[in-house]
Design brief:
Blueprint (H helix, E strand, L loop, with lengths): L6 E5 H8 L3 H16 L9 E2 L8 E7 L2 E8 L2 E9 H9 L1 E5 L6 E5 L7 H6 L12 H6 L7 H5 L4 H6 L6 H11 L4 H7 L13 H4 L3 H4 L2 E3 L3 H9 L11 H8 L6 E5 L5 H18 L6 E5 L3 H14 L2 H4 L2 E3 L2 H11 L5 E2 L5 H14 L7 H13 L6 H6 L11 H20 L2 E2 L1 H14 L6 E6 L7 H10 L2 E2 L2 E2 L4 E5 L23 E4 L1 E2 L4 H10 L5 E2 L5 E2 L5 E2 L7 E5 L2 H17 L7 E5 L2 H13 L4 E3 L13 E5 L8 E6 L10 H6 L3 H19 L2 E10 L11 H12 L1
Parallel strand pairs: 1-5, 9-17, 9-18, 10-11, 10-14, 12-13, 14-17, 19-22, 23-28, 24-26, 24-27, 25-26, 27-28
Antiparallel strand pairs: 1-8, 2-3, 3-4, 4-5, 6-7, 15-16, 20-21
Keywords: ATP-binding, Helicase, Hydrolase, Isomerase, Nucleotide-binding
Enzyme class: isomerase
Protein name: DNA 3'-5' helicase
Length: 728
């Protein structure tokens, strides 16, 4: 009888360490892993015990003469843990032990050398209170800290020390310690990390423990040769294979209705939505549902292009064939054309729309006492948002949040302008997007079996308006007349609303009550950048995409980094010089030019920055519309702040954050009342917040002349320090 081949897993640290090896050695390491998966008993794989190892299951396998892989052999499983030079690999393995946590059933890798803290090191920090002094040993064990590691955790006194010890602390225990350090209670930590129910897996069942959500945070089970080859050959993107347990449980769960996932920038909302799309596509394949599709939609064509590129990277071809990715306006246009819709849909600023407004205002708006800018905003925020088609509907509607009150007689005059504007569009066979959404909804009501979608993923939901949500509710598969189980998976964050639309989903036919979840751990951005970005929007009240408000309390990043660089300069030339100095520092720290992106508020400012950098010999790649960025191309990236939405880079520079640029002075001057002026300011605050959180490790913010008031007040010291440093 043939012996069963062991399951092969790869630890995230193994991929990190492989990525640091010379390219030729990386290729040899990839061949070794493929050989381990397919035939671990093959000739040429020489497993050797590691002398002096604390854990007897630690083995080494030869990559080449000078390099070794550390492999763990236990309970019918092989785990590739680490790859390094021979002596360094052995040194890494000797002090590490692997066990199953009896409370969480998580497979934990612990560096026992942390427990042997030299007394001098402890004494040096004795002046500060231990970071976890307020928690008992029982508390720490309850959140997943191995008992053997308690002395080392007790010795930690600062967040910086906690992060410095991160490589030796099990990943799930480290996440819990970050939450405790952020002020969470033990109960809040367990809830945040989705550990409120006890595991039913025995600590003795090592193979089963490797497949729990907690373990899958750190260990990837290799099932498919093609997927393994893809992971080993392509640039390292951990989001494809490693999900946090709180994310994985959102992905793999069966929901009894629409789901809303909220979370600040960098918490992995889009990643969760993409994995959810893949999971549901896999279910369609398993069920042999030949016609079923998953629709993944978002607000802009740029985001749709980026999501599609990432899904292609994540999914097999068979899975990808079941997923349709399209921004909502594009979907509506295609759908209506197939139904014989004759009108042209106006997207963006179309001169025919401007002409229609001007004509209606000339005839009916001169004696109202309200500006055309106000009336256009009233049309968008009140009439179109509420689907109003006649004057009685307008007279009845509540104008909550509007800064200028209007009496009934004035409303009647205002409606005359609106009616004339709509008549002009009808005459020219033109529609606004909201009108197109309503027409599509009417068709779907008449032909409910028209679509193949079994589920819909909605990304960046905060930028969708009420009519968009009503259409999505109509597209979603139904059960008893409402969106059915697993029908809608919606992700968004109102703090990142940059297009000014606002809608309560419950008023648009989407009920997420009891199925709303919030992600609070930021995986992308350093804590220093996160705090800077949050300071930008401090004091701005936002909704929860429904009828309540949202906040950023309890958000925490998992790592630290340099504080954002703030450069306040007196001229564009000085600003460019400061930018170039910062780029060179990033490169000196090992950041590739393709991972550095320069952003500005407008296309003209982006072009000016690109011209300046090209004149100094830099290779520049512009972030194109409707096209995903190809990171294999060398050179800096440049684009508008709006285009960067949904992207991430190791280093982000935001230039020309000047007074009059952010927010644009012309928009402030055109604002007809204080409420609309506030909306303009808050939209640009959100834009600066979003742009800042595209950065993972480094952030540079520069001005030439007077700085924008949107910059956090706390950066005043940074500005002064930056000026003094440059003067020196």
């Amino acid at each position: 009888m043939t012996a069963r081949k062991p399951d092969v897993h790869i630890m995230i640290d193994a991929l990190l360490s492989q990525n640091r090896l010379p390219r030729a050695v990386q290729d040899k390491a990839a061949k070794l892993i493929l050989k381990l998966k397919n035939d671990p008993a093959a000739n040429g794989i020489n497993f050797e015990s590691i002398e002096g190892a604390r854990d007897r299951h630690m083995k080494s396998a030869r990559i080449d003469q000078g390099h070794r892989a550390i492999v763990y052999d236990r309970g019918g499983a092989l785990i590739v843990l680490w790859m390094d030079k021979h002596d360094d690999a052995y040194r890494w393995a000797r002090d590490r032990i692997i066990d199953v946590n009896p409370l969480t059933a998580s497979v934990q890798v612990t560096d026992m050398s942390l427990v042997e803290v030299p007394p001098a090191a402890q004494a040096a920090g004795a002046a500060e209170k231990p970071r976890f002094a307020d928690y008992s040993d029982a508390n720490l064990v309850a959140v997943g800290v191995p008992e053997a590691l308690l002395p080392a955790i007790r010795a930690i006194r600062t967040d910086e020390e906690l992060e410095a010890n991160k490589p030796g602390i099990p990943a799930d225990a480290y996440d819990a310690l970050v939450c405790l350090a952020a002020g969470y209670s033990v109960e809040e930590t367990l809830e945040e990390l989705e550990r409120t129910t006890a595991s039913n897996i025995s600590a003795d069942d090592f193979a089963a423990a490797l497949k729990t959500p907690e373990s899958q945070r750190s260990f990837w089970f290799v099932e498919d040769d093609q997927e393994l080859q893809k992971v080993l050959d392509e640039p390292l993107e951990f989001w494809r294979i490693f999900l946090h347990p709180s994310q994985r449980k959102l992905v793999n769960r069966q929901w009894n209705g629409p789901v809303l996932v909220r979370g600040g920038a960098g918490t992995g909302k889009t990643v969760v939505a993409m994995h959810r799309a893949r999971y549901l596509a896999g279910r369609l394949i398993t069920a042999k549902d030949a016609l079923g599709k998953i629709l993944f939609t978002t607000f802009t064509s740029n985001l749709a292009a980026d999501v599609k590129a990432n899904l292609i990277n994540l999914c097999s071809q068979e899975e990808m064939d079941r997923i349709e990715v399209m921004h909502l306006d594009g979907w509506v246009t295609d759908f209506l054309r197939r139904q014989g819709y004759q009108r042209e849909i106006l997207y963006g600023d179309d001169p025919r729309q401007t002409d229609a407004w001007d004509a209606a205002f000339r005839v009916h708006g001169k004696d109202i006492g309200l500006s055309l800018e106000f009336l256009r905003d009233e049309w968008r925020q009140v009439v179109q948002a509420n689907g109003i088609s006649d004057m009685p509907g307008y007279l009845r509607v509540q104008r909550t949040g509007r800064g200028t009150s209007i009496d009934r007689k004035t409303k009647e005059k205002v409606w005359a302008v609106f009616a004339a504007y709509r008549a002009r569009l009808d005459e020219e066979q033109l529609s606004e997007p909201e009108d197109a959404y309503r027409h599509a909804r009417d068709i779907l009501r008449a032909k409910p079996a028209l679509l193949p979608y079994r589920a819909i993923m909605v990304d960046e939901a905060q930028d969708l308006g009420a009519e968009a949500f009503r259409l999505i509710a109509e597209i979603a598969p139904k059960a008893d007349g409402v969106a059915g189980p697993d029908s809608l998976f919606i992700v968004g964050d109102a703090h990142q609303r940059i297009y000014g639309r606002r809608a309560a989903m419950s008023k648009c036919g989407i009920n997420v009550r009891g199925r709303s979840r919030k992600l609070r751990i930021c995986y992308r951005t350093s804590d220093e950048i996160r705090r800077f970005a949050e300071a930008i929007i401090q004091g701005v009240t936002v909704d929860d995409l429904d009828d309540s408000t949202d906040d950023l309390k309890g958000y925490r990043s998992l790592f630290h980094g340099p504080r954002p660089d703030i450069a306040i300069t007196s001229s564009p030339e000085d600003e460019l010089s400061a930018l170039v100095e910062w780029i060179e520092r990033c490169k000196a720290d090992g950041i590739e030019e393709s991972e550095i992106c320069v952003l500005a508020r407008t296309n003209d400012l982006v072009k000016a920055a690109a011209d300046g950098l090209k004149a100094l010999g830099f290779k520049v790649n512009m972030l194109a519309r409707k096209k995903a960025d190809d990171r294999t191309k060398a050179g800096l990236r440049l684009g508008t702040m709006h285009r960067a939405k949904g992207l991430e880079f190791a280093a982000i520079a935001i230039v020309d954050v000047n007074d009059g640029v952010m927010p644009p002075r012309w928009l402030l001057d055109a604002a007809p009342d204080a409420a609309i002026r506030r909306q303009v300011i808050e939209a640009d605050k959100a834009l600066l917040h979003v742009s800042s959180t595209r950065a993972k490790k480094r952030l540079f913010v520069a001005t030439s002349g007077d700085a924008s008031d949107l910059l956090p007040k706390a950066t005043a010291g940074d500005r002064k320090a930056a000026q003094q440093a440059r003067a020196a």
